[in-house]
Amino acid sequence: MVSIDYLATEKPKPECYIFELKRKRGMDSKVFYGSKIGPINNYFNVTTDTDAVRVECYRKTTKKLSKKAQTEIAVKYKVFDQIVPLIPARSLNTKNSGTVRQDIPNVLMLGIDSISWLNFKRHFSLTKTLAERYGFYPIYGYNKIGDNTFPNLMAILTGNFYDHYWNESMRDTKYFDDLPFIWKEFAKQNLMTAFIEDLPRYSLFNFNRKGFIDAPTDYYLRPISLAINQQLKRYCYKNQMEIEFYYNYTYDLINALTQRQQNYFAFIFMAHLTHNNANYAGYADLPLYALLHKLFDQNLMENTILFLFSDHGIRFGKIRSTASGMLEERLPFLYVYIPEHYKTTSIDHNLVVNSHRLTSPFDIYATLMHITRGKPIPNLSHGRSLFDEIPMNRSCQSEQISEHWCTCTQRNQLSTYGNITYIGNFIVSEVNRLLKPVAKRCHKLWLNKIHLAYESPIADKKPYERQYLLRVSVEPSYAIFEATVRKMFGKLRVMGDISRINKYGTQSQCIDNSYLQKYCFC
């Protein structure tokens, strides 16, 4: 039964109807509505397995046909239009034929886009205080492995680099249903699963991608996200912030599953508020604190391991052009919370030690696998459980973190750039090479200026090998790129990605290749 508080306070009562939200198989970027039901009273029952309803209310009045006319006609106008999320009870749908652990905890993953450790400390004072009060473990050496959200979250969710499963040639054909997502491992252990994102236009598996044929988890909020996105006003949905809407749903979901004695794995990632503006992070602090405070205050975290994390730091803007900003982009924040009954002496010791060791998104995946099996998984392709001690001599090379993203690399700033202009030209030529598939739509670029350059010592001190990180601007787009280039026997090679650190807005709207958009100038 669902209560609509609005109807209890309005006099005279408006006439209200509901429409059930529906998701059609294979149509991951559209929302559908069922037939109109009503009129309804303050309360109404939903008998079908739907995740949300749309409530529309109308008030009747009369209106003259014209100023002179005496004839009046009955008209009605909309006074209420809102999406009301539901938490339908669902049974487990697992084909697990293996051993099911009885002691497996819940796992709650709360992600926020583009928050470095320093920006977390600047803007999340309430949440930071709560984390310290409840003994969260900070992981300061958490190093991203890719440019943007997609590669970093794919590493968490699959334990592999995204190009192991997907590339741009699959954009119009590849659905993601068959990928070995970590939530499938939890489903095998009879946990309910949830996947929740905001910002549906740019969501993880739908931005220039096909998404899913079937809902990937038991609770999949994309249809609701699409519906409320049509009614957003900047960062607000009706009388609340958009992020509050999703956190309120998260609380309701956890509370409902706890009452139903169903364990869960929930992956929540919020991007809209913090993606493009480093200072908007402060607006997320109170909603996040309120969610966590309520969960702890109502003892809903007693059997729950929590990962509070980001995908990367801020990638654009003035702060990114500073030396601090270059490091911040590469070092997103990560906290881990372990309930007391699950915590052991070794887990406690190892998380304290690991807080200052080099870690990556692959280690989160390895930790999640550890939780599903009750023990670390040996010989994973990438990563190591954070519940084990991370070796002190771990390196970016051993973990396949590109030199370009590695924060362990020592870099010495150069004072003059005249003798490395050829490296700047090489970087621009590499961008033009990448743009060849869309060369008819994108301008050819040329070097405008070298803004910054670092040289890194090579570990073996080979006289024939040098490594540089350059920041260059190009014409005609005035894009600012950063690239790490290794020079060996006179030959140059880009090490990893070429990143763009200023916003490109609509410069690349003539192409839909999400990887090349940061380079293209239409």
Give the helix/strand layout:
Blueprint: E1 2-3, H1 5-9, E2 15-22, E3 32-33, E4 43-44, E5 52-64, E6 72-85, E7 106-112, H2 117-123, H3 125-133, E8 137-138, H4 149-158, H5 182-188, E9 192-197, E10 219-220, H6 222-229, E11 236-237, E12 240-241, H7 242-259, E13 264-270, H8 281-297, E14 304-309, H9 323-330, E15 334-337, H10 345-354, H11 361-373, E16 412-413, H12 421-434, E17 446-456, E18 465-475, E19 480-488, E20 491-500
Parallel strand pairs: 7-13, 7-14, 9-10, 9-13
Antiparallel strand pairs: 1-4, 2-3, 2-5, 5-6, 8-15, 11-12, 14-15, 16-17, 17-18, 18-19, 19-20
Word description of this protein:
The longest helix is centred in the middle third of the chain and has 18 residues. This protein has 522 residues and is α+β, with helices and mostly antiparallel strands. A seven-stranded mixed sheet has the order 8-15-14-7-13-9-10, with helices on both faces. It folds into three domains: 84 residues, no CATH class; 266 residues, Alkaline Phosphatase, subunit A, CATH 3.40.720; 89 residues, Nuclear Transport Factor 2, Chain: A, CATH 3.10.450. The mean pLDDT is 91. Helix 3 runs parallel beside helix 8 and helix 4 packs parallel to helix 11.
